[in-house]
Write a structure and sequence with these properties.
By secondary structure, this protein is of the alpha/beta class. Helices cover 43% and strands 11% of the residues. The chain has helices at residues 15-25, 31-55, 83-86, 91-102, 172-188, 207-221, 229-239, 255-270, 285-303, and strands spanning 4-5, 59-60, 76-81, 109-114, 137-139, 145-147, 156-159, 192-196, 225-227. It has a five-stranded parallel beta sheet, sandwiched between helices. Strands 1-2 form a two-stranded antiparallel ribbon. A two-stranded antiparallel sheet has the order 5-6. Helix 5 links the parallel strand 7 (156-159) and strand 8 (192-196). Helix 4 (91-102) packs across helix 8, helix 7 (229-239) crosses helix 8 and helix 8 packs across helix 9. The longest helix is centred in the N-terminal third of the chain and has 25 residues, at 31-55. It starts with a strand and ends with a helix.
Amino acid sequence: MLSVIASRSQARFGDNQCEQAVSTAFVGQGDQTMKRLKNSVKAALLIVSALLWASSPSFAQLKPAVQTTGIERPESIIYIGNSFFYFNNGISGFISRILAAADPEYKLRSAQVTISGSGFDWHDVGSYFRPNAVGRYTIDSKNVVTFNNPERLFDLAIMMDCSQCPVHPQLKDIFYEYAKKHSETVRKSGAEPVFFMSWAYLDKPEMTEQLAEAYTRIGNENKALVIPAGLAFARSVKARPDISLYTADKRHPTAAGSYLAALTTYAAIFKKNPVGLSYTAGFDEEVAKFLQTTAWETVNDYLVP
């Protein structure tokens, strides 16, 4: 669930209101008895207030305004981010193998530009689209160099900020600033921007909702699709904590985490159900099916209007 708090005023009991309600209820009681009862009722009223606040119209769900990139079959993708992308030999490799299992004839060219620990503001996105540079050639599975000469360098640019930047008090303004700047740069270069919602740290689950709100907001502000990888992680951890998605540092992905992130990306970008695909990233069929289902259900819950 994604929550945005617009106003608390309609569903909130102020201290004076509580005191007045309690005093009215216990006029004529003994001082000590009245004091205890007043405290009990005040606590009860505050609980009721919180419940009313959470169920009131002002406690609204922030939904993504964009459900698709507008490109049904992208031919090329550039991933711009940090170690969350490049761990386990890169998310692009997972996605290429998922695509090969789903549609062997589909050829997707991809590149990753990642800087360890980086945020949006570390990347000179304009330089990634300069001619005869990033993506000029590809080394294929047979170790043959192929020179690319596409009509446009990349169809999609999937971007991720640092793991804390969207919610850090000193960095979140930069997150919004550079989401706008990079979206404009990507579009001027003929591609479509996409934002990759990262996941909470294992020991800080409250980050899930904070990151989801922040990424959904920049997606809406910049009319860009958001990949809900962070929500997929949270769903998986809740349902199957025995499947380890995190390395020992509680933030970087294991192979299972990278596989889930790639499945979620595939489902969000290509609008295809990954459940039942033969590529399991080396996991047994039951675990792979769970992660495939988690990705698909997360994308549907998040992106379906």
